[in-house]
Design a protein that fits this description.
Layout lengths: L3 E4 L5 H10 L10 H10 L4 E6 L2 E10 L5 E9 L8 H16 L3 E7 L3 H5 L4 E11 L2 E8 L2
Parallel strand pairs: 4-5
Antiparallel strand pairs: 1-2, 2-3, 3-4, 5-7, 6-7
Helix pairs in contact: 1-2
């Protein structure tokens, strides 16, 4: 399935929050919703939307890191209704293309223990695991990906 990527604008805020809600509590702790809403209120077009048939089904942000060749993969999410259609792979391919275009060789990913296996399939390596790091029962897994 082909993915269409567009820059985030505030008009898609509610659509992004709806995708977040679809992923709770399996992939995100419910208490993270307020953090995501604040992120959406502050972020600009660097945050990218993944659309299928014109509908927002996912999003991700490749945000600047502490050096020019580093970045953070922030708030990557995909609607459960779109999972299994190759859109997660499309998002990671798009993130890798953005990284290459910007000269980024190291991407930090702060995942949950449930989403970490997805990132590991693309070569991300676990560095630190924090029990209940995102909330009760949702463990934080800090990973490094070299796209």
């Amino acid at each position: 399935m082909a993915a269409d990527f567009t820059p985030y604008t505030s008009e898609q805020r509610e659509a992004c929050l709806a995708v977040f809600d679809e992923n709770c509590p399996e992939f995100f702790a419910p208490n993270e919703r307020a953090d995501y809403a604040r992120f959406l209120d502050a972020v600009g077009p660097a945050y990218r939307l993944c659309r299928r048939d014109g509908q927002v089904v996912g999003a991700f942000g490749l945000m600047p890191g502490s050096t020019p060749d580093e970045a953070h993969l922030n708030w990557i999410l995909l609607s459960p209704s779109a999972q299994g259609a190759g859109l997660g792979r499309a998002i990671m391919t798009e993130a890798a293309a953005q990284a290459a275009a910007r000269g980024i060789v190291r991407v930090a990913i702060a995942a949950s223990h449930r989403s970490a296996p997805f990132f590991a399939r693309f070569g991300a390596e676990e560095h630190i695991r924090t029990e209940d790091g995102w909330g009760p029962g949702t463990h934080r897994v800090d990973m490094v990906w070299r796209p």
